Amino acid sequence: MNALLICTNLQKHINDTYILVKTDQFLIIGVYRELPIKIYLLPFSQVKNSDLSLSLVVYDLYNIVCIILGSRLGNSLLLKFFPISSPKIHSCEKCDKSNIDDHVDHVQETNNQLKEIKDDIDLEMYGLSIFSENELYFRIGSYTFEVCDSLTNISPIASMTIGQPLNISEEFSESVDSDLELVGCVGHSKNGSLAVLQKSIHPQLVTTSELIGSQDMWTLKTNADEFHRFLLISQTDSTMILQTGQEILELDQDQTGFCTNEKTIFAGNVLSNQLFIQVCSDSILLLENLKCLQSISMKQFDSQVLACSICDPFGVLLLESNKLIFFEVHCDKSIVLSIIPVRSSLVIVSLSLYVDNANIFTIQPSTVKNFDIAINGGTQMHQKNEDEQFNKESEKFPSYWLALVKDNGCLEILSLPKFNTVFMVRNFSFAPVLLIDCGHIDSDSGVSESVTSTKSIVQEILFTSLDIDGKSPYLLAIINNDLVLYKAFRISYSSHDGHLLFRFRRELVSILMNDRNTINIEECETANFENVYSIHRKISPPRFREFSNIGTYPGVFICGPYPQWIFKSHKGTYFIHPMSIDGPVESFACFHNENCKFGCIYYNREGILRIALLPTFLNLESPWPLRKVPLRCTSHFVAYHIESKTYALALSNKMKGNILIKSTGDDTEEFETVSKGPRFIYPYQEKYFIELFSPTNWEAIPNTRFELYPFEHVTALKSLHLRSQERASGLKIFICVGTTVLYGEDFTAKGRILIFDIIDVVPEPGKPLTRNRLKLLYDKEQIGPISAIDHVDGLLFTCIGKKIFMWNFKDTKELIGVAFIDAELYIHSAISLKNYILVADISKSIQLLQYREDQKSLSLISKDPYQLRVYSIEYVIDGNQLGFLVSDSSKNLHLFQYQPDDPGSIGGLRLIRQGDIHIGSHINSMFRIRCKPAVYSRSTAHHITGMALNEKRHVTFYSTLDGSIGLIVPLSEKTFRRLQTLQSRLVQCIQHPAGLNPKSYRLAHMLNRLQSSPQKNIIDGDLLWKYTYLGIKEKNELAKQIGTSSFQIMEDIRNIEQITNIF
């Protein structure tokens, strides 16, 4: 990559200075252009090395020069560019550095002489020779670059595999489906690295204990200590008090002032961690350390406490009688209660307090009476003055707001402590795209007819901020057991006086959290629908758990059958990651202790209490938790060795190409080292080597590097099962490598087959990773380049150009030929399944071969007769059906099947094209794995049937050269027809970005016209998932149009997510 990226925008910022990026270097150009006619000198000065860049943008941000370096081979960077010293003045001729300072006095004189020239013709004819040597100078300053931000990039993905993480806790090691991670070769040259990805969070467990009967928990800090010193665990009718230190000890009732004979609803710190507050079902306690300062009985209200929300020093209680109690903790260490006037008899479902520390919430002043006047600006100055006076108090102190959701599906926001309604939304339970203030609601009778007809309920809400600075308020809600996020944004005018100048926009987040064991909203009858809220209020503990610092991240944890982490990013955004490795989580709390710093404590459904830490080696500010292991070289292939739990990598470094190859005439070559002088530009060539890496710390294992010959390239590397007498099963895993030696067009290309065994040796003292070594068992040159390798029934399968050979690795010493066959043109990829082999030709599509052990022969079963430039291939398994997935150079995916009964197959000689779709990226690597068998259902028979089907169904993952990861999963016929009909309706019924047509985009783009029509048997999952972004009304309308229910469609989508949630 030798393209030059030149930016001239710096001219207006730094006089006569330009920036240039060449390959991986920053160069500063000092331009000599004191004369307006020509540029006579372009001196270059290297500043520093850079990443491999594709684009360069410079802009001025508050008089600071910023540079954006876009890269497809590494991370994109945001840099700040500024000089660190005054420009130095250099003579045009070569001079000694010690004499440079002597020329400073001549600069102004020289510039004046150049400007006084009137005869440009002399300068044109004779150039700079008309001046003396001391009269010409140019300037180059000293500059520096400061990295402000970066965008993580994992493209291009050259190869991808799966492996077992070694840093996972022992309690999770028994898991079969979740104990996996993706490992890919990404980047190029100095940006080359290994990308280790996990879709879900795998916490690092500190301790585990069994605790049956717990429902909720909280941790408390003392004012003089940064650690959590107390743990409160709420049970059915009591509370357990634990003291946390070096050990966790249970305290007796007489040792503490906490209430232990009642169920605790909430516990936390108030007054900047000076005091504790414990809210029980029948009382409220205020404590200092273990001393109870005040205890207030709730029996005076003839009702028990259902829920509590606190923002220091205020709090709100929700009673079973639908009363709201507001309390404030005063500085004199006392609690004052007051009843919030409820203006309707509607049942309050959930509530959440929010503190606006950034003072971004503003209220429409009552002085603006006319919308047109406010828009035209006639009263802008008067409005501004009134607005400032109205919000004068809120500018000095934080403001507090209370969000309520009622059983008629309405959302209401109150200002505290005056309890004025400042925001009201009808039909919030419909999850609309936009929440618009409706002012007030006149209806005050039970559940509205629209809510009953759509059968949607709001289980819980949380009003919080998902950024570090608190300037981005978000409203989180669980509606019909699915997570919905709304982001607040400012508006310039509100038609309702005294209401917020804000609206809420729904985020495009699809988190399906439904539990099959919970209430089925679709099956609720209209007559009994009003009782759903009362049932939910009694059986559901709060699922939203805010935390301030877990692993340096603040955020929200969502309990439930499918736990989720929402991390507040330091860049002002948020990232959502699931935690499916430990099953459903009932309760959660942050936990900071000497033995568990900035960790967490949670309680799962199996009655296990765990104290855990977040993995520190992963970057959580990415769509998937990611770890990039820098290699500083290009990685081409990666293979996982299961027995030693190590990774074998094929890597390459750039080296100067100063070796000349000459032929001696007897089929041998001679190498000659060439030296052309210091000004000669040598070409670069790749020097390949094989090396082992340990997933313990992702470092290269010492003394495991195997260097290849010059001009030798690795074209295939796999971990294969070959026949061996050393194992009782008769098979042993070896690292097999196929290479190609390219000396040029005058020489015949050759290759080698290398077979390695990873052996265990006595590790060196202090180096535990040295227990693994590479042992070369076989090394022999072949008649042609080795383009693909695989294993079939313990035999080695190799492709040498268009010739295919089967080898028996006898006694781990030599390869004995077993069978061979000729293919079409040039085979570059091959995969096997039992005794079937699927091979991909560089131009002639795919072929299906079969090896027969009794006849020791390879035979062609079927092939695709059309031309197709194949990139990668993989199998698709759905029970007893087998398909062949192919990616091509036009960024398409094709699905073929062997169907000898089809008339178009000509008796099975041709493969039948069953589906095709345009992906939009070059797919370079694919692998398959069994679907996750865990499918929950209320019916035991359905549960067993679903598990049996998924155990025989495989999901195929693919990676692209653009750094994206996708999957293909087979569906049942009934599910496919239902979702395909929904896809056709979504194309017409929803808005698409820039008005583009996804139906046209997903049609296969073919270089050559096919004789058959496109096979639209692959559903666009990206389009289908947009159904989850719609509101409840829109979902029901679309489902009604295709003759099904919204619940059934969401069940299908949820089932797809669950069976593909492998990592």
From TrEMBL:
RSE1/DDB1/CPSF1 C-terminal domain mapped to chain residues: 687-1028
Biological source species: Oopsacas minuta
Name of the protein described by the UniProt record: Cleavage and polyadenylation specificity factor subunit 1
Gene3D superfamilies, per the entry: 1.10.150.910, YVTN repeat-like/Quinoprotein amine dehydrogenase
GO cellular component term of the entry, any: nucleus
Annotated SUPFAM superfamilies: WD40 repeat-like
Domain RSE1/DDB1/CPSF1 second beta-propeller, chain residue ranges per copy: 203-612
Pfam families per the UniProt record, alphabetical: Beta-prop_RSE1_2nd, CPSF_A
Record GO terms (molecular function): nucleic acid binding
